Design the sequence.
């Protein structure tokens, strides 16, 4: 048995097609496939046709199409009648699936296709399909199978090729342009967010809810493949729970899972310092220890007895001297003299404090690094799960990072770049508008302008995270449209 030829897939502006290697080379030789078109061998990932090792020779011009072998010349003595060789019947025309057939109707080249046969792949105009029994179900006149909408099928193939093209800088540019596709919504949202930031604490909370609601909406829509939807929620179906309560809880969950370690460490330090013994308690303990070291009732009786034993009298006098302030000062002086004579004792006394301070500093740095690294993933988990339990569980995010692999780290780098640009823009705006700063109020123009830019940059971040999830939908089990 001969081996089955390997199947190649090619994605062009006209759709996605399957063929063998020789036919694909012929298409390239004829100019139907460009170096920038995507190809895939078997189940491998999509790459540019010009970068495929087996196709480089065709694009460079070193490829010569194979010609069918010529029959051998007839011999003079070969005058015996021979039966013509049996050849297989030619395949139907629709089985060839010509690459250029998707740009026009199969039967009417001057008409645009309206239907696409799911079996033979023939593109048909609105008049070509057959409709059985007056139904609206189109049937292919070539093979008799069902037909689908040409626009929908082309959209599916383009999305499939886009999803399998990998995550890169083209997606970064797409995320930057995404908010600008809906200029009215962007202008309205940015102005509303900027005005609410000037309305005190309650206004800031409301602005934060609106911002996170938009971020969550963008991530979920883009992750499911709805790349052309607006980033503003549908206010015609406004619900307190879905549009206010859920974003608040998700935002709180993101705060807990990202900055929770830092908050816990700060609380531990606060209660550890201020929850210790007070000065009154320390004075009482010192008084109790001094009284324990001082003379007892028996010693006082010895001091009052003129005929007491000299040894007991001397011991009672020594204990009595322990209660005098001068005795404590003398002991402290002796201790300081001994420490000065031994410089290493001071270093040894400071070592526990140095070790404790170093440990606390390292914990703070680790907490900050964790917050910076995990914050984009916390946003992503909140966006595509809409579940508080998934958000506050870091194992969900870490498993998502494992499944996304290098895609998440690419998205993370782009998110950090956008945040740095946002910080630079905020500094520039603050410097330019510094003459407008007012006492007790602050720089209101800077706060408003920075808020509008922050709204835009957060939408870019949300689109980046949504695109990274969309490109990894198969690994994450996300049912894209």
Sequence:
């Amino acid at each position: 048995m001969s081996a089955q030829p390997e199947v190649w897939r090619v994605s062009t502006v006209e759709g996605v097609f399957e063929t063998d290697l020789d036919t694909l080379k012929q298409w390239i030789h004829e100019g139907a496939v460009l170096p920038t078109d995507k190809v895939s061998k078997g189940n491998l990932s999509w790459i540019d046709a010009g970068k495929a090792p087996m196709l480089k020779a065709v694009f460079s011009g070193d490829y010569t199409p194979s010609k069918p072998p010529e029959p051998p010349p007839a011999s003079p003595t070969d005058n015996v009648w021979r039966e013509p060789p049996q050849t297989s019947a030619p395949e139907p025309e629709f089985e060839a699936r010509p690459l250029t057939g998707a740009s026009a109707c199969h039967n009417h080249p001057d008409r645009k296709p309206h239907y696409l046969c799911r079996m033979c792949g023939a593109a048909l105009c609105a008049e070509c399909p057959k409709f059985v029994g007056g139904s609206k179900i189109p049937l292919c006149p070539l093979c008799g199978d069902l037909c689908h909408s040409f626009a929908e099928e082309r959209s599916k193939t383009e999305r499939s090729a886009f999803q399998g093209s990998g995550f890169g800088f083209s997606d970064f540019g797409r995320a930057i342009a995404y908010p600008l596709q809906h200029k009215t919504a962007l202008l309205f949202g940015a102005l509303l967010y900027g005005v609410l930031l000037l309305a005190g604490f309650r206004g800031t909370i409301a602005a934060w809810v609106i911002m996170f609601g938009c971020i969550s909406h963008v991530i979920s829509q883009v992750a499911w493949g709805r790349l052309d939807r607006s980033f503003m929620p549908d206010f015609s179906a406004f619900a307190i729970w879905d549009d206010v309560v859920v974003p608040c809880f998700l935002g709180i969950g993101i705060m807990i899972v990202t900055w929770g370690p830092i908050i816990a460490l700060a609380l531990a330090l606060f209660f550890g310092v201020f929850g210790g013994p007070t000065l009154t308690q320390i004075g009482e303990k010192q008084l109790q220890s001094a009284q324990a070291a001082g003379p007892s009732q028996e010693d006082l009786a010895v001091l009052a007895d003129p005929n007491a034993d000299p040894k007991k009298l001397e011991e009672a006098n020594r204990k009595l001297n322990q209660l005098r302030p001068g005795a404590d000062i003398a002991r402290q002086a002796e201790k300081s003299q001994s420490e000065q004579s031994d410089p290493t004792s001071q270093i040894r006394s400071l070592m526990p404090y140095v070790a404790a301070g170093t440990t606390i500093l390292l914990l703070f740095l680790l907490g900050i690094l964790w917050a910076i690294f995990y914050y984009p993933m916390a946003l992503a988990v909140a966006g595509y799960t809409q579940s508080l339990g998934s958000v506050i569980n870091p194992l969900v995010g870490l498993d998502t990072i494992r499944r996304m692999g290098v895609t998440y780290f690419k998205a993370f780098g782009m998110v950090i770049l956008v945040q740095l640009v946002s910080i630079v823009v905020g500094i520039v705006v603050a410097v330019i508008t510094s003459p407008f700063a007012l006492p007790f109020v602050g720089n209101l123009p800077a706060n408003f302008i920075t808020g509008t830019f922050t709204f835009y940059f957060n939408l870019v971040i949300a689109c980046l995270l949504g695109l990274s999830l969309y490109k990894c939908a198969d690994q994450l089990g996300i049912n894209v449209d």
About this structure: The chain is about 60% helix and 5% strand. Strands lie at 8-12, 15-19, 38-41, 47-48, 115-117, 123-124, 130-131, 138-139, 147-149. Confidence is low (pLDDT under 50) at residues 68-101. The first strand starts at residue 8 and ends at 12.
